């Protein structure tokens, strides 16, 4: 159709028809825009927003974990420091004889007479080994108290347990004191292997 004929026909239309055609054209173009541009872009924006939200959550979780990790590392450093200090308080296996001699020396320095000093069988615990020693000493109560005080002040951990006292003779100021001195050492891998080997022998 020639262009001139088309515009001539449009000019002959009433104003209301022209307005309707204009509105229809606008609606049609708007529909095409919505269908081809807006809806796809809207879906893409929604998808991206969800991805952004998910990433933000992951970032926040990562930040929380990072803070927790730093706190854990700081606590680990503190625990390791405490562990090293604890190691200083617990003798190793080679130091046990020297430690036991130190205990007897403290008793002698307190003017006590040793009647019994007998190491007992070691007792394995979770991460340490108990080393009990049965002791029986004779001497005045204040000397015994002085001895126990000196043992308690030793650099290595030694606990005095199961204490019993009775006079050596009737109306005597000298007491016979029985007790257990218990010291400790950390369990080593060789202790675990020794224990495993003994268990295997028992099963046979």
* C-alpha Rg (nearest Å): 45 Å
Describe the oligomeric state of these chains in a short phrase. single chain
CATH topology of the largest domain: Alpha-Beta Plaits
Per DSSP, what share of the residues sits in E-state strands of 2 or more residues? 15-25%
- The CATH class name of the largest domain reads Alpha Beta
Largest sheet: 5 strands, antiparallel
Question: How helical, in percent, are the residues?
Answer: 55-70%
Number of domains: 2
Distance between the termini: 111 Å
- In total, the number of strands is 5
Instruction: Write down the overall geometry.
Output: rod-shaped
General description of the model:
With about 200 residues, this protein is α+β, with helices and mostly antiparallel strands. The chain has two domains: about 90 residues; about 100 residues, Alpha-Beta Plaits (2-Layer Sandwich). Helix content is about 60%, strand content about 20%. It is built from five helices and five strands. Strands 1, 2, 3, 4 and 5 form a five-stranded antiparallel beta sheet that branches. A hairpin with a 6-residue loop joins β4 and β5. The termini are far apart. The model has no long low-confidence stretch (mean pLDDT about 80).
Please give a handful of descriptors for the protein shown.
5 helices, alpha+beta, Alpha-Beta Plaits, 204 residues, 5-stranded antiparallel sheet, 2 domains, single chain
């Amino acid at each position: 159709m020639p262009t001139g004929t088309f515009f001539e026909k449009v000019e002959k239309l009433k104003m209301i028809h022209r307005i309707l055609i204009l509105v229809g054209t606008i609606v049609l173009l708007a529909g095409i825009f919505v269908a081809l541009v807006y809806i796809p872009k809207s879906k893409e924006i929604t998808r991206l927003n969800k991805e952004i939200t998910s990433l933000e959550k992951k970032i926040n979780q990562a930040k929380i974990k990072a803070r927790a990790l730093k706190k854990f590392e700081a606590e680990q450093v503190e625990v390791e420091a405490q562990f090293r200090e604890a190691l200083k308080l617990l003798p190793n296996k080679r130091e046990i004889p020297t430690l036991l001699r130190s205990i007897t020396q403290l008793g002698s320095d307190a003017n006590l007479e040793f009647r019994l000093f007998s190491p007992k069988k070691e007792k394995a615990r979770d991460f340490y080994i108990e080393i009990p020693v049965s002791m029986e000493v004779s001497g005045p109560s204040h000397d015994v108290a002085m001895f126990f005080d000196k043992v308690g002040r030793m650099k290595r951990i030694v606990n005095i347990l199961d204490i019993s006292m009775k006079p050596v003779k009737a109306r005597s100021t000298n007491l016979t004191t029985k007790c257990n001195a218990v010291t400790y050492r950390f369990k080593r891998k060789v202790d675990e292997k020794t224990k495993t080997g003994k268990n295997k022998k028992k099963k046979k």
